[in-house]
Structure formats: structure tokens, C-alpha cells
Amino acid sequence: MLRIGQFELDLPVVQAALSGYSDWPMRAMARRMGAPYTICEVMIDSFVNSLKDRAKTKRFLMVTEDDHPAGAQLMGADPSEFPSAAVRLVQAGFDVIDINFGCPVKKALGRCRGGFHLGQPDIALEIVRRVRDAVPDRVPVTVKMRRGVDDTEHSVDQFLQIFTGVFDAGVAAITVHGRTVQQRYNGPSNWSFLADLCADFPDKTILGSGDLFCAEDCVRMIRETGVQGVTAARGSIGNPWIFAQAKALLAGLPLPPPPSVTEQKEALLEHFRLAEIAYSSKRAAKQMRKFGMRYADWHPDADDVRAAFIRVGDARTWNGVIEDWYAADRPGIYPICPGVPKPPALGVKT
Hints:
Structural class: alpha/beta
Strand content: 5-15%
CATH class of the largest domain: Alpha Beta
Number of helices: 13
Largest sheet: 9 strands, parallel
Number of strands: 11
Radius of gyration: 20 Å
Distance between the termini: 38 Å
Order of helices and strands: EEEHEEHEHEHHEHEHEHEHHHHH
CATH architecture of the largest domain: Alpha-Beta Barrel
């Protein structure tokens, strides 16, 4: 069980906020495949405040009845912009407000957003307090952090100042990524840092992030570090099955067989259908191309299927890939997960 505020989740593996990916269609697929909680892709506070009620932008605030609980992640520079944006997201139907102090992208740092705040604890704490005061008590506020700006002792001190301060301000949980902002996505995530943090703060709800490429990674992080939950990020792209797989492993069951080609086809068709609801048909095809390239990892002809998805430009070419490569049912394969040996797909000789 993982508890975030008033929400008790039956699986400690949740869908992370992924910029450019975790839109409503991806979150809906994750929920249908077992994710107990999903977080929308990060939004800039000033952007949320300026959003008009238009069909073109409806997808940003899209929450449906079967979407709950759903989190919205906010990022920005000015503490005064956060409260009104948080209230707007709650009014749109989001159940949790997650504040991003972890983004390591140059554009975000250059505009004093995301991971930049880990170097200015006073501003970070002001943002959290303002958001906590602005939204109803029933709405949990959470924070996403990295383990510091860099590896210096001063950076660790700043991390701990923010970590303890935001809990004192009333946040329900903190997600900690095991890399520094300076690392960006390079080098390994420092899981020992997470283990030490959990040992030092056993009464706090800490979720882990970083190097979670498959279900085995999610389970291993929980067991090795003591985090109460994990956020599946890059490992969940084109892989809505990660949640059911993690649930089986946590229950002591074997890793389920990989989805068959027919099961992959059904997921692709449904994901595309949902994308057409959120976007125009033309925009849906372009948005889904990057997902198709990752779904292809499960196909026994992964390289060829991935190349076919790269060429997708509209609904017609998307349907062509489905017709060419997913017409006949075959056993699927497990994608390579760094450091984790995979069982062969059923019926496939190795």
C-alpha cells in the first residue's frame, strides 16, 4: 500500500510525469493496465494561468471520471504565479498538485525553473507554502526533487533543508530522483542515496525515481532502498504493462509472459483512439509516432517495426504499420532492460 494524502493506492508503482509524453491518452492507458495513480506532464505555472477555454488547448486540463486520482505537475520561477495555477488545476479536476524541483533541462534552468530551485531553498519553500495555502486541505501537495544540484556537501545541505522544510509545510510525499541536476540523465542513478534517506526519515512518504526501465527495476528499488513507492518514467513509455508486471512480482509471482502481438495491437489501437479524442487525427498520428517506436520494442521484429513507425505521418500510414506488422498473432518479446536477464518469449528459440 502507498498512501498519498487521502489516497490509498493498492500498488506502490505509479505513472510519473513525463514532459511530452504523459498526456491524457498515455495516463488513461496506464490506468487501464493497472497504474493506481498517474501524473500529467509538467506545465508551466504562467501557461496554466493564461489558458483559455478553447478546444485547441482542452487536452492540457483533461481529466475524466475514470482518471482519479490524477496529479498535475507545476513548474515555474515566480512564487506568486504558483497559487493561482494550482487552484486552476484543482478546478479542472486534478486531485494532487505536484511541484517540480527536479527538471535538469537547460531551458528550465536558464529560466530559473525546475532543478534551479534546489540551489535556492528559501524560494523553493515559499513556493510550497503558497501552494499548500492556496488549495483545499483535501488536495495533497507533493514535490519532485533530485538529490541536489551537484555532488558537493553544500548541495546536500540545501537538499535536506528543502526536504525537511516542505514536509514541515504540509506536503504529503516527495519523489526523489537519484541523479543530481548537473548529471541530467547521464551516469547511474544513486540508489544508495535513497536508501540512506529512507533510513534517516522512516516516517516520511518517499518515492524513488531514476533508472526504472522495467518492472524488475521498480521492484528492486523498493526492496533495496526502502522507498514506499516508485514513479515509472521512461520505462513506462510504450509499456503500459509495467504496472501489472510489477504487481505480479511484488506478490511473489513469476514475471508474466510478454504481451502477444495481438495484445500489442489492441493496446496500440486503443492508445491511438484516445489520442484522437485529445488531439485532431493529424496531430494524433504525429504524437503517437514516438509511442509506436517504443511499443515496437515488444514486437519479435522490433527493429523493422520501429523503422516503420518512424515513417508515420498521418492516420493512413499509422494504420498501414498496424496492418503490415500486427495482422498475425505471435509471441511477444521482452525489451532489453539494463542489468536484468530476460526470459525468452514463449515459442521463440534462443
